[in-house]
Amino acid sequence: MVQQQSAQSSRLLILGGTTEAAALARSALGRFGHRLRVTTALAGRTEEPAPVSGFVRIGGFGGAEGLARYLKREGIDLLIDATLIDAARVHGASNYRVIRDVIIPAALPHVFTGLRLSLQASWTTLIAAELVGAVAGIGHVLIVASLDIYPGMIFYGMAWVALLGAVMTLVLGRLERVAMPWLR
To answer: The CATH number of 2-92 is which of 2.40.160.40, 3.40.50.720, 3.30.70.2190, 3.30.465.10?
Structure first.
């Protein structure tokens, strides 16, 4: 029962009462149904908003701090700012430009966060697999050194783990700066 509740507890907040926001709410509810609680936040500038799927919140948040408090208080897991897409459309952006100039740049920080976490998990799994059954590799060096009670070799293996992890993190950081120059 606990697993069922956690699967149903995902909450999505969509900022903007736009056509895109309404379509996102419909799509999210259509795809995830009862597993996702969708709330669309309208800024309050529309007197009679068109029907929006899910829950609707009208009014501002009181700035970034107010939005942060709301997200924490309501347990919001996911946030989509559909106002960015709307702003691009108002300025005449084509579908291609919306994807290239709005959606991809908005998604890239999350993509790189996923890459960092995946890198860490992959590296940990590789070393653990080598510890268990490899005949070569850093994990094998560590397990042989621990069985032979050879602290110098253990230190050597751990130094390589740290060095290679740092190099991979630096390379990923450089890729991140190249892909997202606006974060400099």
So the answer is: 3.40.50.720
Task: Express each pLDDT in 89-127 by its tens digit.
Answer: 889 999 999 899 988 998 898 899 999 999 989 988 888
The model's pTM = 0.62
| 3-class SS of residue 42 | strand
Contact in structure between 99 and 32 (CB atoms under 8 Å): no
Question: What stretch(es) of the chain map to CATH 3.40.50.720?
Answer: 2-92
Q: What angle do CA 49, 30, 59 make, to 5 degrees?
A: 30
Burial class (CB in 10 A: 0-12, 13-18, 19+), 25: buried
Bridge partners of residue 58, in order along the sequence: 42
Backbone dihedral angles phi then psi of residue 146, each to the nearest 5 degrees: -70, -35
Other CB atoms within 10 A of residue 168 CB: 15
- Cα gap 93→178, rounded to integer Å: 24
